[in-house]
Amino acid sequence: MELLIEAVKSSPEAREHVTEILLEEKARKEYARLSGVTSLEGMKRWREVQPDVQERFLSNVFCGNCGVVRIKDYTVQLMPYGIVLEGVCSTCSRKVARVVE
Ligand SMILES: [Zn+2]
After folding, report:
1. 3-state DSSP assignment of residue 58
2. Which phi and psi angles does 60 have, rounded to 5°?
3. Which of 5, 10, 12, 49 has the highest CB neighbour count under 10 A?
4. Exposure letters 14-48 (e unless 16+ CB within 10 A, then b)
5. Phi-psi region of 73 (alpha: psi -120 to 50; beta: other; left: phi over 0)
6. Whole-model pTM over 0.85
7. Where are the domains of the chain?
8. Which superkingdom, per the lineage (predicted)?
């Protein structure tokens, strides 16, 4: 590790390379955090939504096959524009998602 630090200090290219690796690592972690796994912050915000309002979102999801359906087996994601519920259509099991505004 110390050798690496020395190399980075003495060479701008090495520094850039290390920065790139760190950024890639960060992007990968960010992606892993956002895909398929319920995010804690998203869940926290979702829990703050009134139950009757939650119900309205859960039962008002658009499925490309069936139209407006109920979502099931969903995870809660936190996106820059709000909470997103990702799950499947309760009728045909196709993937559906719903943004909670
Ligand atoms: Zn469907």
Report:
1. helix
2. -135, 55
3. 49
4. eeeeeeeeeeeeeeeeeeeeeeeeebeebeeebee
5. left
6. no
7. 1-35, 38-101
8. Bacteria
User: How many Å lie between the centroid of ligand 1 and the Cα of residue 13?
Assistant: 52
CB 95 within 8 A of CB 85: no
Find the angle CA(42)-CA(45)-CA(46) to the nearest 5 degrees: 85
CA of 22 to the centre of ligand 1 (A): 41
* d(CA 58, ligand 1 centre) in Å: 14
Band of the pLDDT at 88, cuts 50, 70, 90? very high
Q: Cα–Cα distances in Å, from 53 out to 20, 43, 65, 86?
A: 43, 15, 25, 17
Can you read off the two tokens belonging to residue 29? 């972690």
Neighbouring CB atoms inside 10 A of 50's CB total: 8
Residue 72 banded pLDDT, cuts 50, 70, 90: very high
